[in-house]
Each structure stands twice: as structure tokens, then as C-alpha cells.
């Protein structure tokens, strides 16, 4: 079950990279709003914090997909090695 989840999350690495980069861009936008709110009105900081929460969600979702793709490649290699030759002392 866990293996299926890893394969499903890592099935589209380009989409995961897009999600991660969108989250990163939103993070930069949130930092700008928070910095502007420090020097001007505090409501900009609240907007920045809301954008920050959304940015962290998208960045984490994208990074999880990228990680799952890499981890599924490791699992594939490990399963193919055990099927080929179980003798470690050759």
C-alpha cells in the first residue's frame, strides 16, 4: 500500500517540479508582502501570512512528489537487484 502511494505521488515529476516552483514563487511573494507590511500597514503582513501558508502547501506537495519519484527509482533498482543475484560474495 505504501509502495503504491509512493509510485502514485512520483508518477509525474514535471508536474511536481511545477508545483514546487509555484510554491517557491508564492513564498517570495509572501516575504515581500510581510516586509512591506512591516514598513506600512499591518494588513499587508496578514495577507503575506495567508500567501505563505498556501506557498508552503504547494512547495511541500511538489517536493513530496519529487522525493517520491526518486525513492520509487531506488525501490525499482533494489527489487531488480534482489531478483538478479542474491549472492553478495561474488
- Individual helix count: 3
Number of DSSP strands? 0
Average pLDDT reading: 88
| Percentage of β-strand residues | under 5%
Element order, helices and strands?
A: HHH
**Class inferred from helices and paired strands:** mainly alpha
**How would the global form be characterised?**
rod-shaped
- Biggest pleated-sheet summary: none
Q: Write down the oligomeric state.
A: single chain
* Backbone CA Rg: 20 Å
Helix content: over 70%
What separation lies between the terminal Cα atoms? Answer: 34 Å
Weakly predicted, low-confidence segments: none
Keywords: Membrane, Transmembrane, Transmembrane helix
Transmembrane segments: 20-40, 46-68
Quick recap:
This protein is mainly α and 90 residues long. 86% of the residues lie in helices and 0% in strands. It is rod-shaped.
Amino acid at each position: 500500500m505504501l509502495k503504491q502511494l509512493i509510485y502514485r505521488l512520483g508518477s509525474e515529476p514535471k508536474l511536481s517540479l511545477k508545483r514546487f516552483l509555484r510554491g517557491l514563487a508564492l513564498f517570495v511573494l509572501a516575504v515581500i508582502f510581510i516586509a512591506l507590511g512591516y514598513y506600512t500597514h499591518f494588513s499587508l503582513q496578514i495577507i503575506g501570512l495567508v500567501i505563505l501558508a498556501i506557498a508552503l502547501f504547494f512547495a511541500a506537495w511538489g517536493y513530496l512528489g519529487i522525493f517520491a519519484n526518486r525513492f520509487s527509482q531506488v525501490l525499482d533498482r533494489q527489487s531488480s537487484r534482489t531478483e538478479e543475484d542474491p549472492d553478495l560474495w561474488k
